[in-house]
Amino acid sequence: MDDLDALEEWAAPLIARLEPRQRRALTRRVALDLRRAQRERIKAQQNPDGTPFEPRKPQHRAQQGAIRRKAMFSKIRTAKYLKAKGNGDTAEVGFVGRVARIARVHQKGLRARVDRDGPMYDYPARRLVGFSAADRELIRDSLIDHLATL
Question: What is the pTM of this model?
Answer without folding.
Answer: 0.84
